[in-house]
């Protein structure tokens, strides 16, 4: 009985620091588990349809190996590529699985960032895709006039979830216009997921107080709405949107997605109805039938009865009946993209690239993986 209780004072003293250490580390472990739970949701839903849950293959906690076991097992298997894919996909059920899955993606992304063939391919692919979209006569984009491959500023990066992440900017007039931005993401067949001229969107045009602010440093004035006296044709807006979707994805809009188009009127503050006088505030405008304009057309393609809206955007009426795109947003599922790029470019330089990645799994402390995942600075 005394042996179990441990009556030796020296033994008690020796055990106390270890118990205190456990108490100090316990809050971090609980915090890490909580953060990982959130990470699972982000990874499972990254690039997925808003409002739609993704169901991952069910795995029990006992089926998961500790990170050290993952690395040891990888050394003894011939199916390194298959194991790599399994680990990267296993972002659910256990904290160990989530950390290992994200660490695999991080390792691949870091290798790709310094892979010259990948960087050349990515720059050329992005430049070609953006130029083709911007010069498509069936998809008029505001601010794209004069765009050529040599005038694009392209920056390339790799994300653990989403693969290629590239930004292409066309900015010919920094004095009176805003930049036209494109974002391209994905694997070996990347997608244009964003087209934006934010200074011509309704959120900017209708809020003069934000002009010249930190968010909108360029003081670009309001567009001329004089020609927008009638709403754009909703059929025309939908047709342009569908062609844009095809140009961005090389696929037709899925038949399950239904178009919803908003062409509501806006009061033009520069047009005052002479039949109405506002007392007490000089220059104030009251909305009447004479000063209503229709400069904007906002569209969404979504599944009826759900919050799933994977494709949306905005157009402006620059001339009577003429619509130009100022915003296109595409939500795509890109979870396997970084592995595709690893196969294509890391595999070209090493047949054992998957094994080399696996041999590094577990070399990064879990807390450092989390810091990179959530971009938490070291303190």
What does this structure look like?
It is a single chain. With 379 residues, the chain is α+β, with helices and mostly antiparallel strands. It is built from eleven helices and ten strands. The chain has helices at 2-5, 9-45, 67-75, 80-89, 95-113, 116-134, 202-205, 234-249, 337-349, 353-358, 366-374; strands at 153-159, 163-170, 180-186, 191-196, 258-262, 266-267, 292-293, 296-302, 311-319, 322-330. The strands form two sheets. The chain has an eight-stranded antiparallel sheet. The chain has a two-stranded antiparallel ribbon with strand order 6-7. The protein is elongated, with a radius of gyration of 27 Å. Mean pLDDT is 80; it is low at 1-33 and 35-78.
- Total helices: the number is 11
Mean pLDDT: 80
Percent strand = 15-25%
Question: How would you sum up the major sheet?
Answer: 8 strands, antiparallel
Task: Compose a concise summary of this entry.
The protein has eleven helices and ten strands.
Features:
379 residues; alpha+beta; 11 helices; disordered N terminus
Secondary structure blueprint with pairings:
Layout: H1 2-5, H2 9-45, H3 67-75, H4 80-89, H5 95-113, H6 116-134, E1 153-159, E2 163-170, E3 180-186, E4 191-196, H7 202-205, H8 234-249, E5 258-262, E6 266-267, E7 292-293, E8 296-302, E9 311-319, E10 322-330, H9 337-349, H10 353-358, H11 366-374
Antiparallel strand pairs: 1-2, 2-3, 3-4, 4-10, 5-8, 6-7, 8-9, 9-10
